[in-house]
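It is worth pausing here to work through a concrete case rather than discussing structure prediction in the abstract. The textbook approach is simple: state the sequence, then state the predicted structure, then interpret. We follow exactly that order.
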Amino acid sequence: MSYNAVFNFVVGARGLGKTYGIKKFAIRDALRNGNQFIYLRRFKTELLGRGTFFADIAHEFPKYDLRVNGNVAESAPIGTRSEKKRKWTLIGYFVSLSTAQTQKSIAYPKVKTIIYDEFIIEKGALHYLPNEAQMLNEFFSTVDRWKDKTRVFFLANAVSISNPYFIEYDIRPDEEGEIVKRGDGFIVCHFVESAEFGTKVFETKFGKFIKNTEYADYAVNSKFKDNHDAMLGTKPSNAGYTYSVETRAGTFSVWIDFLAAGGPYFYIQEKRPKREILFTTVDEWMTNDKILATNSDKLIQYLRSAFRTGKAFFDTPQARNAFIEVFRR
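Step two, the predicted structure:
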């Protein structure tokens, strides 16, 4: 809170209290100051459990009754009036980002806080929305109306660095410390240190059971699954530039070493030459100065083959993860 950012990312261990903390802040702000909040999820199906929104936190506000009424949250002072005469006050909304585009005409003049819960997807049936970071910007604009009144809190477990927001805003965990700033302070990302929390978790029966597993690494120790050193390598001096590839996660130069024993070896780099041949894997980003690369093109097939046989090396985890997404298509 002290950084006074507009977009606030809080990423840490499961059960650390991220959602609880911001819910308490938003509800207290509504009851004391008359402001409202939006609890945002990606799809409508993720809001099916909204009926339990207050279940874990209602005891923090003993002077009020809190309830979910359809797609809104309401409060009423505890009193002796009959239920029919009780006055319930609107304090919040439940909204899905996937349908937010249809709500541009809706006004949210009292909303000061948007809580975007689980903005990083864990593996499963869900998927990111097309151009999701831009969709979030559009929704924020609808709520804020250029009045600088609204803050967004993005909450997630440390699952994957390959998400639309880290890609869009070039947020790189473990490279800049616990606090990362972007956009002259418009964005602040807090990677929560959870050593004390982890110690307590590993004293529980379940904690002892999962200790030293991959699940514990991200759920308790806040280690991103895809932020590792596998297939990272330094480009040798005799590797020659061949072309650059644009992906949804960025644009990368491709260098090939044909002379090394057992080669050729491919080196994919974030650093790009001043003059380049540019291919794009995103058809809607196609322009006159690019060449569209489809899955059936030899260029992608050669890269995929090098990746499959361990002959592709990347300068950063972000570069590697970008091409993993390309190869999955």
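Step three, interpretation. The longest strand covers residues 89-96. Residues 7-199 form a domain with the Rossmann fold fold (CATH 3.40.50.300).
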